[in-house]
Specification:
36% of the residues lie in helices and 17% in strands. Strand 5 and strand 6 form a beta hairpin. The relative contact order is 0.19.
């Protein structure tokens, strides 16, 4: 029995790691599909991260910050990004403006993005601005703009069986 446990343990560990990596890969594929028009128009850059993806809105000055921004009259890269996300409870999102604009302009754009996320009930995914946006996997510098780092945060399997108190816990796979 001990031998069997020793043989199965590495497979379980690989399975846990692969669930995280599969979810990261799924996130990147979904974002590539939902944001394809914006990427093709050079309005957005999408770069993989070891634990997620980084979306950079290249022309963030054109993102409206009013009630009309929420009515979907025009294609908005923020909406396309939201459509590509996984379960919000698995996401941790950091926002930073890496452009060369003055501080007050960059702060306003970050606040406008955060407000947009809150309007779509995704405010719980936002992390503090004190945490810097991560560098992309390939080491290439991200282009300047409104950088949105999306990290996949899979729950530990020790929390399973996944159901408790009448609610299901999210899982990666």
């Amino acid at each position: 029995m001990t031998r069997l446990a020793l043989l199965i343990a590495p497979l379980v560990l690989v399975s846990c790691a692969s669930d995280q990596q599969q979810s990261v890969n799924l996130l990147n594929r979904r974002l590539a599909v939902t944001m394809a028009p914006e990427i093709a128009d050079n309005r957005v850059a999408l770069q993989p991260l070891p634990d997620g993806a980084q979306v950079t809105l290249l022309d963030s000055s054109s993102l409206p910050d009013d009630v009309g921004a929420l009515d979907n009259r025009t294609r908005d890269p923020r909406a396309s990004m939201i459509q590509g996300l996984l379960d919000p409870s698995l996401m941790r999102i950091q926002v930073a403006d890496t452009s060369d604009q003055p501080d007050y302009v960059r702060e306003k754009r970050v606040q406008a993005f955060e407000h947009y996320m809150e309007e779509y009930r995704l405010g719980s995914t936002l992390q503090t601005a004190e945490v810097p946006v991560a560098a992309p996997v390939e080491g290439a510098a991200a282009p300047p703009g409104l950088a949105i780092a999306i990290h996949v945060d899979c729950p530990h399997r020790t929390m399973w069986p996944g159901y408790g108190q009448g609610q299901s816990d999210p899982s990666c796979h």
